[in-house]
Amino acid sequence: MENSKYVLGSKYDLRTKLILLIGANILIFLGFGLIYQSLISIFFLAIIISDGYKKSAIKYILFFVISVVLEKNLAYLNINFLMNLILFLLAIGRKFLPCIIVGKWILNSTSVSSAVATLQKLKLSKDSLIMISVIFRCLPTIKDEWSHINMAMKTRGISVSIYNLFHRPAATMEYFFVPLFVSVIEIGDELSQSAIIRGLDAPVNKTSRYLIKFRKNDIGVFILMILIILIVAFMKISGWDL
């Protein structure tokens, strides 16, 4: 079948994205310096920008800059426990920012159909396919459910905010998280049944409208990822303070 009959989808194959996610997890534990974190984050930001996610990249850059500025200006001041906790969370978020960048990019740029088609090509088990399909379909549904619960609670004068979490934690937990957890369980069951009804576990060869193959972009990014890991590992072994 000709390539024109297929849908190319994202600029990068899902397998490449998963490799990048693994690489991001490896790299964040090979260095702890601010310059190192900046360079690693820039690498992954360049990848998502090349895939058209410029607005997301700007948000990540702003988060990184703000976290650094706050940490440098407030770290040595005599501040309360809450502010120290916020600074700690910002530092953790900045540390794991490469993983967050790639993970969010995977969720935003990968449709359920292309993900299932890619995983089928990897010869995963049927149970794994159903589980991953449910996860991909469940996250947007949970987001919608959360907005509905939030809207309903706002009409009763309760909303999810830092103020309510500290001043009315019991009410916030009861009115938001309990309905959300119940909805998540029901949504998971419904999506699992839907996947089975659609024949995801049927013992036949399945076709897809998505063209699943490695392209030049995937090969280039994969080689670059391997080179970066090797260079960083060599520098670490050589005694460089990253």
TrEMBL record:
Ranges that cross the membrane: 20-48, 60-79, 219-237
Subcellular location, record wording: Membrane
GO cellular component terms given for this protein: plasma membrane
Stored InterPro entries: ABC/ECF_trnsptr_transmembrane (IPR003339), ECF_transporter_component (IPR051611)
Keyword annotations: Cell membrane, Membrane, Transmembrane, Transmembrane helix
Membrane topology: Multi-pass membrane protein
Protein name from the UniProt record: Cobalt transport protein
